Amino acid sequence: MAPRTVPERVRWAVDQLPLRPGCRVLEVGCGSGAAAELVCARPGGAQLLAVDRSATAVARTVQRNLGAVQAGVLTVQQVALAELSVPAASFEVAFAVDVNLFWTTRADPELSVLRRALTPGGTLLIAYGPGPRPERQAAVLQRVRSAVGAHGFVAPVVLHEDRGGGVRARAPAGRVPDPPLRRAPRPAQVTAL
Fold first, then answer.
1. C-alpha to C-alpha distance for 118 and 91, rounded to whole angstroms
2. pLDDT (tens digit, 9 = 90+) per residue, 20-33?
3. Which helix (H) or strand (E) holds 89?
4. Which of 139, 134, 127 is nearest to 167 (CA)?
5. Residues 115, 90: contact at Cβ < 8 Å?
C-alpha cells in the first residue's frame, strides 16, 4: 500500500487552526480526508465533524480515517453546507480548504450556517492553496474576506504565505438567531474494508 500523502496547502491550513484538546471542529468539503487525518492525529484529540456534498469524498474520508471513525473521534456526513443542521454554537473551529463556493458565489446560506454553528469567538478559516498567479489569489482572498465580514464575522484577516492563503475570522459574541429547520443530513455508512 502506498503511503498517504497530505498536500502542503492542507498541512498549512491545519497549522493555522487553534486546535486545543477536546476542541469541537467542523470541516467543510472533506475531500480525500487528508485534513481530517491531521486534525484527528493532534494530541489531546479534537472531535471532528467532516462534511462534503459528494458521496465519493465521504467514502474516501471514511476509508482513510476508519480508525478515527470507529473511535468516535470523527463523524463524516454527506450534506451540502447550506443544508447542514446542527445545534447553535456546536463548534469552536470551522474550516474549509479549496472550497470554491466561498469566492465563486456570495455563499450567503453557507456563511449563515457557519456563523450559527460556531461558538461566540469561535474561529473560521477558509483556505486555498497557492495559485500560479499571485494577483488572482489576492483577489480571491479579498472577495472571501468581504463576504465573511458582511456576515458579521469579527476581524477577518487575509493570511498569505508560500504554502497557502486564506481568510481567518472569529464568530461574533452573542446569540445568533436560529434559522429555519433544514432536512437532516445523511450519515456516512461505515463498512468493513
1. 5
2. 999 999 999 999 99
3. none
4. 127
5. no
Q: How many CB atoms lie within 10 A of CB 7?
A: 17
> How far, rounded to the nearest angstrom, does the alpha carbon of residue 11 sit from its chain's CA centroid?
13
User: For residue range 139-153, what is the model confidence (pLDDT) as tens digits?
Assistant: 999 999 999 999 999
Report the candidate in 117, 21, 27, 16 with the shortest Cα–Cα distance to residue 65.
27
User: E strands of the chain, at which residues?
Assistant: 24-28, 47-52, 74-78, 91-97, 118-128, 154-160, 165-170, 186-187
CA 115 from chain centre, in angstroms, equals 12
Instruction: Give the sign of the dihedral formed by CA 128, CA 129, CA 135, CA 138.
Output: positive
Residues 171, 152: Cα–Cα separation, whole Å: 7
Quote the CA–CA distance of 67 and 192 in Å, as a whole number.
Answer: 11
